[in-house]
Amino acid sequence: MSDKTRKFWILVGILMLALLLAACQAKTIGQQASTDNGSYTVVSVQELQELLEDKDFTLINVHTPWQGDIPQTDQRLAYDQIEQSLAQLPAEKDSKIVVYCLTSGMAKIAVNSLLEMGYNNVWMLEGGTTAWEEEGFSLEK
What we know:
Layout (H helix, E strand, L loop, with lengths): L2 H22 L6 E5 L2 E6 L1 H9 L4 E4 L13 E2 L20 E4 L4 H12 L5 E4 L2 H7 L7
Parallel strand pairs: 2-6, 3-4, 3-5, 5-6
Antiparallel strand pairs: 1-2
């Protein structure tokens, strides 16, 4: 095999490896945000829809008064009573928890409480059920 042929096949191999690695990288979902108590992930309605396809988390509606749930919601806990709801939260502090409310205000308070309680895999739906419905999805009443 000539030197040129060998270099060609090495280059082809490197390109194939680069394409394979690019294809295998997991799609990043959400954006990081932080509070004084730690960081959390903010997701859009579309990203939450993707997550719900292979649900591996606890979905919590923290809005008061209750006005409806996103399908597959696991719990309804008042945003200002998260600390008193420990028995209804996952026991493992690294369990993935996604919270939402009407527009995100109450959810941010709940996120902060969860982080303060030691949970470290906390997610929040940006825009809450308002954004959910604006995207054409319905709530369970």
